[in-house]
Amino acid sequence: MRNYLLKIKAFLMVAMLMIISIVAANAQGREVTGTILDATLKDPLPGVTVLIKGTTRGTNTDLDGRFRINVQPGDETLVISFVGFTAQEIPIGNQSVFNIELEEDIMSLQESVVIGYGTQDKKEITSAVASVSSEQFNRGNFPNPTQLLQGKVAGLSVTRPGGNPNAQPTIRLRGISSFGATQSPLIVLDGVIGASIDAVDPNDIETFDVLKDASAAAIYGTRGAAGVILITTKKGAARKGITNVMINTFGTAEQATNLIPILSAEEFVARGGVDFGHRTNWRDEVTQTAINGTINASVTGGFENTSFLASVNYRNNDGIVRGTNRETLNTRFNFNHGALNNRLRMNLSLAYTNTAATDVNSEAVRYATIYNPTAPIRESTGESQANFGGFFQRPLFDFFNPVALINQQSFNTDVSSAIYSYRLEYDLTDKITIASQFSQDILGTTSTQFYSREDFAVGFGRTGQAGQNTFDRNQTIFNGTIRFEDEIFDKMNFTFLLGGETQSFTEKRLFASTTRFLFDLGPNNLGFGGLRFGPGTDLRSDANTSTLNSVFGRANFNYANTYFLSASLRAETFSGFGAENQTGYFPAISVGTDLTQIFDLGPFSQLKARASFGVVGQLPPSPTLAIGVFGAGNRIPLDPTNPTNSVFVSPFREASPNPQLKWETTEEITFGIDYGLFGGKVTGQMDYYRRNISDLIFNVNVPIGTPSAVQPGGVYTANNIWANVASLNSAGFEFITTVNDVRLGPVSWTPSLNFTLYQRTRISDLGSGAFSIGEIRQGVPGSPGQNDNQMIWNIEGERIGDFYGPRLLGLTESGEYILSSIEPDEYERLGSALPTGDFGFSNTFVMGNWDLNFLLRGSWGHLIYNSFRGFYENADGGSNTWNSVITKNTPRNPFVTSTPFYSDLYLERGDFIRLDNLQLGYNLPTRNASVNNLRLYAGVQNLFTITQFTGVDPEVRWTDGTGIDANPLAPGIERRNTYFLPRTWTAGLTITFK
User: For the whole model, what pTM was predicted?
Assistant: First the structure.
């Protein structure tokens, strides 16, 4: 008991001494106060951290930017810091009141790069990642957001041959990544994986971050093989009482350019063409000067720990071909709020987009070039006037009035896209943060087709035809992460991320079409069609559901801002693979070191060497390929005496099942250098990569009833099967350099050059064992007469996209071909349809309130088959039905008199340099207190193209066709229905109110 009392006395004595010491210390201290403002806007900054240097004592500013803090003897300096502003150290001295202004730190805002499931300081990046901010975007009218990146990122190709406003760009990152599965990069929109690119308006985008190599994309596992593009939309301003209203509106005028030269009506008749007695410029009748308008309006604002953005974007794009149009309305709302002293952060993102697209039969473009120039548009008497709505028509092969096609056929597509996303982050401690995000991406598409009863091409023979298709997709994602960050020992910073994710996908389709109508009622009255079966009819539907479950982790190490290491691993299970191969593992590791932190490298302010290795996968094009689904077969009457009531539809298997089907796998190694010279005056990157792709998914033919190679004891139940049958390899070199603020007297010039050199993709393996293929021949020119000429041969051991065929050795005196051979087994390799390189050269000039931006872009090393020349250049007798094209590459002494036949005569180099876009702007000085910014601008897109190609557009064709029907094994073909290329003039106004 006594010892216990002694302990109590000792404890009380120590406590008393501590209290006396604290009171004495406070008696000697004093309170200082202050106000912290934004140096530019002079607005108070809430939430600014104020610390006593060398201690943990501090406070934050209130809503009015004010702070109070007690200082003790020995306290010498206040440290003021706030995200996005340059930190300051203020001597305390005897001062009691401080008025401090913080400058916005532009460099620090640019140093953070978005990566998978988070951000990382740019100096720590050890993978091939490119970031493009809104100030660097292309200027002009771009309906698709990815066109903002065209020519801006080394290794990223964004192409859209022709100028159809409804055509989606083809996007390739580091060339070909597959030929049986998706080749386009994965889109991640504000954390929503696989979001539709149509769900965001270009005006709402803040940054693009492009994960180019496998080590950066591996965190996305089976969806990262083609690369990843992370899109971050604009947020509001988290400053008290700041609200801005921005209106950006512009108008455009588009005109058709680069029309292929053709014979005049007189020349056509002199050559032997039929003279119908008229003189018609069909391209003038089909094309128009398209006048379009766009308006974007947004409201951004914020108050303490809260920011918001609300925007409405409307775009109307008429095409230069009459009858084509794309109209889009996009709305977005982003809301961010911090609670519990900003330890809890909440984000809500809502977006809705509606697009109405109207197209015409693309063959109208072809006939506008080659239709008989002596034919009238309409005729007032005769059978054609009575039967074809008054349009001139004649029953000749491949001979359709293009104006009639535009007026008597219609194709409409309505797309509704909605994305909503909720995200929560909470700091458990200063070192541990947990986060969770739930999102849904809902897409609904309705497309209709209509052919009038008087339409000579389709509807006349069927007494009208109409159809309607629907497609609905719902993607739901839920993930959770925990992040730990600490300095685990002196100078060693460590960040660890652990997460789990589940994604579910549901798709539904419906197809319906009928024929034989009493009246032209359109696609919304399919019940009026008298025929429900037979040619031109359709009635079917399908649906599928799949699930992708994932666990992932990533660790980043930073030692003394000199040595960096990152490693990640993702494990995924996908229900759409074969039962034996539903789980895959995707590791990645990357390292780097900033040599300027170790050695004195003179003019180099940064020289970071890095190397990375990663494994990524690719999902199949459909989640049903492994199971071999059944489809609807023929209608069979089981009782011939009662054919109406006994008819059933027999099932048939669309493909044999493959329980061993698995993901495609890409292994990639990258060596890179990030460099800076003269204190950041010159910056850039260089990367060399090698890529090996294995287990490519492809559909191969198999004999029905024979033993299955993938199902022991089973047989093939269909004449085809989806299997992993091929391997590819490729390599490339990427380079980008930017020179910041070159002074040319009063002018500031910032040029940026990037280029990519491709080692074309080679097929290292094409089928094996039971699925041996050897080669795949694709890309026939078409009818008339050239349906058997397969131009693109993809051969094991050779490159993808090589042209094979005969060489033209000369012409006879009468103009007939002299070919090296007409036997396909003796054909030669003529060249490649894929480029060896591409480049982008962007420039920004600023002088006072004036600014000028332009982009030169080009590609080289690719051949293009000019189908207009391949069909309509020859002066043979059978070609008298159509007009002839006469280009600078057309033989004229003598003219070719042979029936058109594919050879290297019609292959042309596609090398080009194009002034893609140019814009001149002026910022008007304003003294109005309510107007923060007023800018006028004007520009032009596709001002000129330097090329030897004589077709419509020398742009690289990565595939034959577009959309779901695109064929990556037949690149390099300019089809005869290629949409005319427009030149676009723009004038606009941007005004910001505060």
Answer: 0.87
